[in-house]
Amino acid sequence: MIPRLKQLTVVGTFDSGHWEYDSGLALMHLDDAARLFRVEGPTGVQLRLKDVQTARTVAAELGAAMGKGYELRDWTRSNRAWFDAVQIEKRLMFIILTLIVAVAAFNLVSTLVMTVTDKRADIAILRTLGASPRSVMGIFVVQGAASGVIGTLAGVLLGVGVAFHIDTIVPAIERALGVNFLPGSVYLISRMPSDPQRGDIVPIAIISLLLAFVATLYPSWRASRVQPARALRYE
Length: 235
What we know:
- By secondary structure, the protein is mainly α.
- It has twelve helices and no strands.
- The protein has helices at about 20-25, 30-35, 55-65, 75-80, 80-120, 120-130, 135-165, 165-175, 185, 200-215, 215-225, 230.
- α5 (about 80-120) packs antiparallel against α7 (about 135-165).
- The protein is elongated and about 100 Å long.
- The termini are far apart.
């Protein structure tokens, strides 16, 4: 087969931020494209949706409505390898973030254990004044839970703020360090994309709160087991 050749005039260039498209995509007038490919008119229609996550659902609905004889492809099928890779990376990032939160929860445990050890005399005084082991345990549970809530809220706000301004933060860091984090010829994209989704943020926040609460149980239990006589023997 001999490729078709046609001389055209380049009137402008554009940068989509995707190296594969920038290096091999050309836009031309519809009539010129019809003559080049020897067709009478358009052979396909491309739709742009407000919510890109509904592409599969819309494609299925259109396929059922239009019947056979038409080929429908959504972006998840056209770039299936990338889509599957992104899904795997999201699962791995979820696991990594959970492990990071678990490490932070261990730090919370160690902090509360040190607090219980340091406040043994105060706990013993509370016990002699009539405080029950359950009330002492509740004090440390509330303290640990408050630390977990504050830390989780601060982390979520900071992370969401960075995610919404990543297109400003990353170029500033690149200019300051004189590096390029995403070479287009290697990563196919030249800008770091960011699309914060509620379905990604809420589960991590909930797991952080649960781990923070669980981390308070052991130190609180130790605090409730403090014996006033032993704690105040050398005071």
